[in-house]
Amino acid sequence: MSQKASFAQWIEGARPRTLPNAIAPVIAGTGAAAWLGAAVWWKALLALIVALALIIGVNFANDYSDGIRGTDDDRTGPVRLVGARLASPRAVLTAAVTALSVGALAGLALALVSAPWLLAVGAACIAGAWLYTGGSRPYGYAGLGEIAVFVFFGLVAVLGTQYTQALRVDWVGAALAVGIGALSSAVLVANNLRDIATDKPAGKITLAVRLGDARTRVLFVLLLALAGVLTLALTAATPWCAAGLIATPLALRAAAPVRSGLGGAALIPVLRDTGLAMLVWAIAEATALALG
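and the corresponding structure tokens:
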């Protein structure tokens, strides 16, 4: 079969539905910096480049690693370039390395104008992106993917964005970081819930495989609920933060297929709706904090 993926297939391979996981933390972190009166737009832009490059890089790295292991040979979700034989493993690996390199360069610039010790944090992020499904013992195959997402796209991304602009963090930033981490993890939980049937035979023991179908569904709902609780907690900073409840309809729409027991392709819209709920929540809270 010809390994000539079209431009549209390369875009799909980058998994654009996951981009809210990169954009939302930067918006939330910038809102937290604005709360401290220290938002800096060009640092926010650099942080956004870092986040987008890292998530695209990890998506291509995941495509490459899962593809060469055969994990994606039988897949329900979005197209995988290597698994579907649309692009060579070398080409996908090159795309992953290129994206991660862009993120590293932007992160280097951001660290040098903020705090050089952040270079160590950036190195940990890149290592985490690669080792998710790469290396001899990928942690994504050991049920640790959701924890990594919570840490890197929640705590590190939000608090890192706040710190590079304000040079300090506070409880508001921490609450936003936990909320974004929970919602970002929920996206992965939904993804892995959908793939339980194919991941287990392939030896990919995700958290969803470990918990089983029923408990994974409960975990997904609890993660969404945690963001709702944090919305109410953030009103202690300013009542404007109640605006985060505007994301509730999207969260309920995301939860509906999960709570009703649907599986397979029927869960694909859950990823989109959860990501949109996270993005709307981040925008609402950041706006509220800027006004507050």
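(Above: one complete record from the training split.) The CA atoms of residues 190 and 271 lie 6 Å apart.
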